[in-house]
Amino acid sequence: MYAGQGRKLVMALKHGDRHDIAAPAADWMVEAAEPLIEAGMIVAAIPLHWRRRVKRGYNQSALLSRAIAKRLKRFDVIDQPDLLQRLKRTDSLEGKGREERHAILCDAISVTPRHIAKLQGRPVLIVDDVMTSGATFSAASIACIAAGAGSVSVLALARVGKAS
User: Which one of 1, 84, 124, 138 is separated from 145 by 20 to 30 angstroms, measured CA to CA?
Assistant: First the structure.
């Protein structure tokens, strides 16, 4: 859950330049995702807009996806952290409601054109650090399916729970 120590861990990876967190996090994520893994699956990261990527210096989701792909080599997965691209620079989604998040992300993510041929009919595992409403995963999944992917699965390090 994205609360307490889980939130601190994600924030250290995302904003604290703690790249060392990606390896143990990938171990946990692979254990949880193993039933979803298919031979030849493409492992991809949720993209950052290039301006945010330059400002931060790295994409925390790409760090996770690379570490996950490395651990799944026995399945002959394809490590493709740049499969997706963020076309629109979107404001932070923090504090936004479900509907607003989905509206903001509509048409914001697409498959990188040079990877479309590689995607045809292949299963995809999309990796992100945090899942809140599912809007980002939804936009990325829609882009993959529209570009010809087979099945699409998603995997997040942490999940925001609903308030009681």
Answer: 1
